[in-house]
Amino acid sequence: MQYEHARGNVSKLPAYCPGLYCGRRVLQEGNIWGACGSCPRGFRRNDQNYVCTPCQSDLLLYDWLYLGFMALLPVLLHLSSIETKLLRSGKHTLGLVVCSVVEVALAGVITLLSWEPASRMSDWYPIFYNPQPNFMETLHCSYEAVYPLYTIVLVFYAVADLLMLIMRFLAHVILGVKVSKSIYAGLYFFPILALAHLTLGGLIYNYFPYVTIITSVISCSYNFSKRKNQDIRSLFLDSVKDWRNLGIILCHWFLHGYGIISITELKNFYRDLWLLSLVPLPALLYIFTVNFSDPAKVLAN
Questions:
Q1: At what angle do helices 281-288 and 243-264 cross, to 10 degrees?
Q2: Which SS3 state, helix, strand or coil, does residue 236 take?
Q3: Where are the bilayer-spanning segments (predicted)?
């Protein structure tokens, strides 16, 4: 099936452009619009007249939660690295934890202040939708259709990486905190996070609430299973008295609640608040059913 579109510049609208993303830019000569092609960054094709128009709508709550999730990832990876490798000196541990939180918070503030608000778009991979009218030529119309959700995360990671180097150098010089291993960890996982965002951004955007809940539940169970005393009383007291265990549990609860809010988007506010009461359930379920799930006790019986 053949179809035609106005090639080159046009002086009258609407002038059809093929594909989902091809649009016409406004030229400086006046009421003249350019040939069909990719829209500039921060613009999106208007499906009514096929002209590239600025993205000016506010981000949805889900979009902000997604950006928050991408900002939480480096914090969690920093804390995981500190907890598994560097938990020997209280001074060094506390200094690195503070540095991790402050670095990411400052990077988020700097990134948001340097960005203009824009709208949420539906497709993260416009490169796969370049049209080929009549199978004769391909119009290359790929651009950041999900502006600013794509590049803002990459800029955030770059700023966070730079702040990590600066702040940890200052922490080492001024406070004597050992930072070498934590810096190496950050230099590894920041490029990995950026690559994952570049290639899997659309999947992460759509499924991050479920990933958050599932990983928080699994991680919570894993943390409990590593403890030596697997009985109800010991698990409960260790969770309350040990600041490390208490901090880990609170982090899991925060992630679980974050995932619930991301799924519900608080569309039914009072109902969704009741769902937050489920946040402690995985931890309580493990503690009160440990006598039935601990392999040593099951085999002993």
A1: 130
A2: helix
A3: 64-82, 94-115, 149-171, 183-201, 207-224, 245-261, 273-292
